[in-house]
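[step 3/7] inverse_fold.run input=structure_tokens len=107
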């Protein structure tokens, strides 16, 4: 997964166009290629950190769902409705975090 900043995207686009023009002239400057690779490397590292953070959020949400299920099972009759609502909320939050992880892994 790559996560480019706006500045990196602009700079990479400029370098790509410059490299394209140079390749048409059959004279590609190796510094252009190195700069693009450096931008790609930093974006890949940033993307991996973001993906790891998303996995951490998802794991925390899974734990919250497990705790909410335990609360439903141990709740008294008076508190059962509130515990079920808390379980539904935790499950919705888990679904959102799982979707975010899946989108990030596919990108």
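[step 3/7] decode complete -> sequence:
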């Amino acid at each position: 997964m790559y996560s480019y900043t706006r500045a990196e995207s602009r700079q990479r686009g400029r370098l790509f166009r410059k490299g394209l023009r140079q390749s048409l002239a059959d004279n590609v400057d190796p510094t252009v290629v190195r700069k693009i690779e450096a931008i790609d490397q930093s974006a890949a590292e940033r993307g991996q950190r973001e993906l790891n953070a998303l996995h951490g959020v998802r794991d925390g949400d899974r734990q919250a769902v497990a705790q909410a299920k335990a609360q439903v099972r141990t709740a008294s009759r008076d508190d059962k409705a509130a515990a079920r609502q808390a379980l539904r909320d935790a499950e919705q939050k888990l679904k959102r975090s799982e979707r975010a992880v899946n989108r990030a892994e596919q990108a």
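[step 4/7] annotate
The two ends are 6 Å apart (CA to CA).
The helical segments are 6-24, 30-74, 80-106.
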